[in-house]
């Protein structure tokens, strides 16, 4: 981009049609001047014609921009902040960023104030933090509390000694599934220890969550979601249960939500559909979803207990499905 005028590259881009437009990659470029790169990406016509993935490097700062205007930043350090600030001012504000992903950021070495500057003035629908490092849980909560006003979507982050945990900021809601014994008066007494740790974190960060609902799920239902095996270094999960058993479990879970007055429907079973994610061995793999009218129930299996995130936006089922798959 230092030697090829942005106008020429824009002409090439706009001449692409069909599948050629689905995936545009600009990566591993040494950009001596961030102005030239941001001029290209700030052009709204270029953004509209980039239906696929855009990748580029500025030093060790890595960006990823796709059709939903998600930007991923990783390998971030203090020395690159000045470059990041230049790009933020020109690109982030003009491109209507839908999701900002902060990956592999060592919060133990980077002052939280630097990250706060990055988010200041930005209106993100979703901020996702994954595979980041924290000294203490308090540092993570401190960051989230400081940026609650700048973030209005789903925040995911990993903390040492705990499992993957999902925070949801307004306008989304988090349903926390807690194992309970329906024959016991004190259901909290039989909650998993790992869940207790999550509940404690929720109490510490309660001020940044507007709507938190804890749902008690019978043991036999919850155990179905526990029958998973962890594979690979990425800790991917596989649901080693049949489709009939999974549908049955989701129907029971949906009944629990309906009974508690959150999800309301006349015919529960007919509204429950499980996304058919299977690998070559025919077992369940990855995430699955449940549809209910214009709402999307997104179930994500973590290492310890299960979380369910419900969005209740007035969109069609097709739009929700498309959004889920693209994310």
Automatic annotation (TrEMBL):
Native source species: Pristionchus fissidentatus
SMART domains: FBOX (SM00256)
Name of the featured protein: F-box domain-containing protein
Domain spans labelled F-box: 1-44
């Amino acid at each position: 981009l230092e030697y090829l005028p942005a106008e020429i590259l824009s002409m090439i881009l706009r001449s692409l049609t069909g599948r050629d437009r689905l995936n545009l990659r600009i990566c591993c470029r040494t950009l001596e001047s961030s102005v030239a790169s941001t001029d290209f990406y700030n052009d709204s016509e270029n953004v509209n014609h980039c239906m696929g993935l855009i990748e580029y490097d500025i030093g060790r700062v890595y960006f990823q921009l796709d059709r939903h205007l998600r930007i991923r930043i990783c390998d971030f350090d203090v020395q690159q902040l000045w470059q990041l600030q230049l790009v933020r001012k020109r690109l982030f504000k003009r491109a209507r960023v839908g999701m900002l992903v902060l990956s592999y950021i060592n919060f133990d070495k980077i002052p939280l104030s630097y990250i706060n500057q990055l988010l200041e003035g930005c209106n993100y629908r979703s901020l996702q933090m994954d595979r980041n490092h924290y000294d203490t849980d308090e540092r993570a909560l401190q960051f989230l509390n400081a940026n609650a006003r700048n973030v209005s979507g789903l925040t995911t982050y990993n903390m040492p000694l705990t499992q993957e945990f999902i925070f949801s900021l307004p306008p989304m809601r988090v349903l926390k599934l807690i194992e309970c014994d329906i024959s016991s008066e004190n259901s909290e007494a039989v909650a998993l220890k790992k869940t207790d740790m999550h509940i404690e974190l929720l109490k510490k960060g309660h001020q940044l969550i507007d709507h938190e609902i804890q749902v008690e799920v019978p043991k036999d239902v919850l155990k179905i979601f526990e029958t998973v095996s962890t594979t690979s270094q990425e800790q991917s999960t596989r649901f080693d249960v049949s489709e009939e058993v999974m549908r049955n479990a989701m129907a029971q879970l949906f009944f629990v939500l309906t009974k508690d007055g959150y999800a309301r429907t006349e015919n529960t079973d007919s509204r429950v559909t499980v996304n058919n994610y299977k690998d070559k061995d025919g077992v369940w793999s990855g995430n699955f979803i449940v549809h209910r009218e214009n709402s999307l129930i997104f179930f994500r299996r973590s290492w310890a207990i299960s979380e369910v995130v419900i969005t209740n936006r007035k969109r069609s089922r097709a739009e929700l499905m498309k959004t889920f798959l693209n994310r």
